[in-house]
Structures are given as C-alpha cells and as structure tokens.
Amino acid sequence: MIDLHSHTTASDGQHSPEELLALAASAGVTVLAVTDHDTVAGLSAAKAAAAHHGVELVAGIELSAFVLGKEAHILGHFLRPEDPGISQFADTLRTEREQRMKQMVEKMRKLGFPVRMEEVYTLAGSAHLGRPHLARVLVEKGWCVDTKEAFDRFLGSGRPAWVDRYRLDGADAIQLIRTAGGTATLAHPGTSKMNRGEIATLAKAGLAGLEVLHSDHNPSMREKYVALAQEFALVTTAGSDFHGEKVAPGRHLGTASMPPALFQQLRARASA
Ligand SMILES: [Zn+2]
Ligand SMILES: [Zn+2]
Q: How do residues 134-183 score in pLDDT, each as one tens digit?
C-alpha cells in the first residue's frame, strides 16, 4: 500500500515519527510519505524508523498557501529536507508567527487586558505559536470562560485583537517544493473546495499531482477531480491524511492507496 499523506507530532499529529512508522508497517503500508504542516522536523526520525520497519519513506511536507484568495494545502514529496530554501522558509514562518502574536498581544493590552508575550510562549512550548495559545492565556486569566469565547470576542477573523496571518502564494509554495527537488501535489481538493480555475492556476505554476483519493473525499469528489487531473495532466495520488485517532478520528493509514505505476509517474516528475 502506498500512502502519500500523514502527520506526526512535528506538526499536529498524535504519534511520534517512530510510532507512526510502526503503525504504518503493521497496517501493511509499504510506502509512506510523512507530510507535516510547514515543517520537515520529523523527517530524520521518520527515516530511521522507516528503515527499521522496512517501509519506504517519502520525505514530504504540507504547505498552507493561498490561490486566488482561497486557502490551499500543497503537498511536497521527494524533498531534500536539508535544502536551504526549506530551512529559510521555516525561519520566515517562525518570525511571522512571532510578529503576528506580538501584534495581537499589543491589541489585547490596548483593549485593557495586560497579556504578556512570555505567558503565551510558556503555553505554546515547542509548538508553532498560534491563536489557540493566546486564547488559552485569556481563559487562564479568567477573562474568557473558554477558548470559544476568546475567539468570538477577540481573536476570530475581523474581531478586535485579530491580525491576519502570513499568506504564502500557491505558486511560491510550488516553487519552494520544486527548488528542494520535490513534486507539488494539491491536497484534498474536495474538502478545500478547489475549482477548475484554481487548479488551472496551480497547474501553470508547476503542480504535478492531485490528491484524488483522500479519507474525507466522497465518490462524487473523486470523480470530479479525476477528470480535472486528466485535463491538466496531473498524476492522481492517494493519502489517508492520518493524524492519529485522537486528533482526526476515522482516518486510517493505508486506506487511501495508489497503484505503484502512478507512484512512479509522480516520482519521475521530481526535479532531483
Ligand atoms: Zn491539509
Ligand atoms: Zn494533512
């Protein structure tokens, strides 16, 4: 079984890279791509664990980007994780997250809620800094009853302490992946509500694949995107998008699997 989409604790997955590879091996997965959100931090541990279990690891990433104003997730496969472009990008994101948090904390202070950056950092720990951490601080301080209230009153889109986040352009995401030797594939186009126009734009920018088989895709989505893949000469791929049962229930490793011939077609498009 070939599964080109999964997550570890390096982003929002439940399982460490070691646990993930053990689970994949026992589920009968022979080729697994580890594709954490905006990071390659889990790949070296995943590579060692994959060798131990006799699973072929595809070095991957899942980038959040925007195409024609809509959020799109773009998978990179067959990456060189040590590529300088990738580490530069990780640095940029870290700086952007910090800047955004500083601005949101400043807005909260002006609203009369004296939050400190250190409190948010403490709560975030090693995780990517984000609004949920600030929301939890507001709850701990007793200013909101729960994080939902924190978002509804202050942090949600358009609310008084909200600051828009960094937006990576879809074409730039594809370029970043290609420069690091990889192929770019549009993840779960069905759940992201991607239409022909957006796919055409990404195809022009060098998209190689379309994730037609995904845990959350229904048969009519599959049909729609198989046709679009054909129209734009994209390789149809499969991914469970496994995060672990506690994070995303009902998604199982290997349930979305693709034929070896298509996997080879995708690999052939890698620029490495
Ligand atoms: Zn995604
Ligand atoms: Zn994912």
A: 999 999 999 999 999 999 999 999 999 999 988 999 999 999 999 999 99
pLDDT in tens, 224-248: 999 999 999 999 999 999 999 999 9
> 29: CA distance to ligand 2 center in Å?
17
Residue 71 CA, ligand 2 centroid: distance in Å: 13
Sequence-ordered strand ranges (E) for the chain:
2-3, 31-34, 56-59, 61-67, 70-77, 183-186, 209-214, 235-239
Ligand closest to the CA atom of residue 188: 1
Q: Which ligand is nearest to the CA of 242?
A: 2
Q: Among the CATH numbers 3.30.420, 1.10.3470, 1.10.150, 1.10.12, which is that of 88-155?
A: 1.10.150
CATH number for region 2-83+180-268:
3.20.20.140
Amino acid at 251: R
